[in-house]
């Protein structure tokens, strides 16, 4: 979608430069642009695009809401500290279907950035509220975002080959938000690690682990004689230690 908008804007600029190219066929790009500028021809353009062939009736659950889909798969390996609740992402492998990428370097960067944003969503960025709805998570002392040390120790990203997308510019696919959800692989890896830790203590069956999987939640899920001393509090009476009611 975005690529088509960019293409539309580029086509507008190309048409504006055609007279200058025709007048100076041996010139270079910089020459044509400079001449156009001196002739007061606009060198900026906006693109607009309406995706054809889409439409969806939510009441009937029928139709085609999107032109195409962007797919990806991820696998993460984590290590948790059962005593502190801390964790470390040892390795993440991602394969992303972006059709025929227009610029693999940029796309891989987008995938890595989207993944790390999702990592914060699933493991660190906890919103804390008072019983009356006041937001307590209003600064870096309470609200944590990913840092350099949170990047997986081994981070492998590859683009799927041989899967062109006929619905977009040069068989490519857009990428931005889709890799965010791939970070759920870290959350579920943490949950598997907790499951193994609990099994070593003879604890079986289901247990509660809400996202984000913060250090406190990981620690409390690794039940032992210490956590048994701290029953789960009533959320309606919870007040962070550093906030005065």
TrEMBL record:
Tell me which domain of life the UniProt entry assigns to the organism this sequence originates from: Eukaryota
* InterPro entries in the record: Ald_Oxase/xanthine_DH-like (IPR016208), AldOxase/xan_DH_MoCoBD2 (IPR046867), AldOxase/xan_DH_Mopterin-bd_sf (IPR037165)
Which protein is depicted? Aldehyde oxidase/xanthine dehydrogenase second molybdopterin binding domain-containing protein
Q: Which organism is it from?
A: Cryptotermes secundus
Domain (Aldehyde oxidase/xanthine dehydrogenase second molybdopterin binding) ranges: 7-152
Q: Which SUPFAM superfamilies does this UniProt record tie to the protein?
A: Molybdenum cofactor-binding domain
Supply one GO molecular-function term. Answer: iron ion binding
Q: Which Pfam families match?
A: MoCoBD_2 (PF20256)
